[in-house]
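for the writeup, i need someone to sanity check this before i put it in the appendix. the sequnce is what the collaborator sent (i think, or maybe the updated version? ugh). structure was predicted straight from it, no edits. if anything looks off just tell me and ill rerun, i have time this weekend
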Amino acid sequence: MAFHSSMLSSSQPSSQFHLQHHPRPSPRLPLLRSLPLHLRLRIARPRLPPLPLAALSNTDNIINGGGGAGDDGDNNNNNGGGGGEGEGSDDDGGGGGNRGEALFVLAQAGRKLESLPSDMAAAVRGGRVTGEIVRRFAELEASSPLIRWLLRFRGFRERLLADDLFLAKLAMECGIGIIAKSAAEYEKRRENFVKEIDVVVADVVMAIVADFMLVYLPAPTVSLQPPLAKNAGIIAKFFHNCPDNAFQIALAGRSYSVLQRLGAILRNGAKLFAVGTGASLVGTGVTNALIKARRAVDKDLDDEVEDIPVVSTSIAYGIYMSVSSNLRYQVLSGVIEQRMLEPVLHNHKLLLSALCFAIRGGNTFLGSLLWVDYARMIGVQKAQEEI
């Protein structure tokens, strides 16, 4: 009993010892609880970005994460046809990120979304353009009054955003058109060049009218085209989702199927057929008018010069542009310039422009040679010896 009582007596101080030490950490609790709260407040304030986005009308979209980038109808020429990396659709992964990035760039520039053209503002809301595209638009708009005026038109806006050298290439093509076409005509006709000058004029006039469209239509674009109506047909939806250039590089988060790239060739071929036929109608009409004027002055020309067949020549030239010109310019714009030259010489614009000028000049000269051979092969033009 004595031993037991001693054990009890010895255990009691121990329990008292523990009881006395339990309350001792409690004075630290307020301090421990206050430290994380105090640190969190001090860290959070510097990390809040001083965005002027609150001035934008759709700031709530940014705060809420933006959701998706639009429904399945928000497809355009820069979209593919579903699957893969957002092929044909602006999913939450790409659209929301693009929208936030584009709005942030606008905020840095001190601009509101409403200051953009309506189609571009809709593309930003739908997450179909990146912040880099918005930045490029602002730079182009501030570059010169001419470009600022051209940016008012969606066709030029889409092409200038995709290629800042688009206007230079357009000027190159039109500038070398007359020289290259005339040189090619002389190379093929040689001593008959003067005798066949009326046919030469027809070819040059057709070239002047067509060269613009040959650069314009196959040029890569950043499409700002609004989505199609939900009741649009299957064919309309398919071509709506095709790129403007079969070989162009898709924007981040988008891709094109092989079928859609083939569709770009077919669609541009149809457009160039219409352009070529119309240009040839103008060219051959002008040439026939020149022939009649020469006959009125020189009666001896009646037997030497024949009128050019307007309809057959126009259709032949339309077919030539839809096939030969279409393929050559698609490869030139989408492969040689955008995929090969631009990545290597992006920071050397002068050298890049010089190479583009040389390549486009050679392509124009080659096209003139091919047209003469093709026109003679199908019989719409004849060599002077056959007349």
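The chain has a mean pLDDT of 75. The CA atoms of residues 29 and 35 lie 10 Å apart.
thx in advance!!
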